Amino acid sequence: MSLAGARWPGIVGGLRDRYEIWDEPPKCGKDVNDQLKIRIGLKRKEDFLPLKINIYQINTDRDPKQLKFLCLDTARRILHSAEPDSAAYDKVYSGDVKCRNLEDVFTLFNSRRPEGFRGHSLSVSDVVEVEDAAGITPGFYFCDSFGFKEIPFQPELAADAVRGPTIQVVLVEPGKTARIAEVGTSLDAMQQTVGGSIEAYYPFEEQVCIVCNDEGKINGLPLNRAIRDEDTNEIVDIIAGTFFICDCRKESFGSLSEEQQKRYLEKYRLPERFFPQETALKPCHISPKTATGNSIWDNPRISAKTT
Questions:
Q1: For residue 142, what are the CA distances in angstroms to 57, 129, 151?
Q2: Closest C-alpha to 96, from 160, 45, 155
Q3: What separation in angstroms does the CA of 44 have from each of 30, 132, 143?
Q4: How far apart are CA 4 and CA 25, in angstroms?
Q5: CB–CB of 149/142 below 8 Å?
Q6: What digits encode the pLDDT tens for the residues 1-37?
Q7: Nearest 5°: phi and psi at 224?
Q8: Where residue 288 falls among pLDDT bands split at 50, 70, 90?
């Protein structure tokens, strides 16, 4: 990118990764080091406000009109529409990047690709979604032959390649009714689901486990559900924070069967509150009149049953 880097590699080489070096060469009669220090001091990459972006790229398996790598005008002529075929795209990146503008995004994803990027180098026909940025209007931008053009786009039609493989689990959140959900199989996806480091807990006789936040109680997360002994029905633990229930027959966590989903969904369906008594906490089932999955604290129509 930088002429400065090409002309004065000894000065810029060690700073390339930390600083955005301007292309303008130093003025005559000034010390090269002083000129570069001035520019470096004004343009440190750490000082850039991050852009929150998503990147979409055409999947050739869903591209019957062969639109991949075509410019916007050509794609519109083929589709007879101002909008690209959103269903042909995969989301291949989602995250924050330290870039000033979309041209910086193009350079980044063609040189030092961020962790988690699952696509090829940013190219013509790709779409960059800007969710939050200073100085850039949020929206969808088509990477064209020259620059970027704002376009209409339907992200809900695109496949999510970022998330990767998923498993079907029973997800249990504090203050909410339990529900069936899909959870990514990567460590990062599971940590995001429970809000921290994961711990597998095995209170059941069958090969099914609870995956919860390892430090839920230490971090003061809200108490969620009581775990009971399957024979005596006595409380053996209380889980703090969000957890999910999944299959654990193999080395990796797996999906629950349909029968297991129904059984554990019913077992932990109702949210609970806990009230202190002389020797222990007493759980109280909260029964929303209308089970919408929203937080019970937002629903005034509730009744309570102690168990």
A1: 10, 9, 6
A2: 45
A3: 21, 21, 26
A4: 6
A5: yes
A6: 333 333 333 333 444 444 444 444 444 444 544 444 4
A7: -110, -75
A8: low
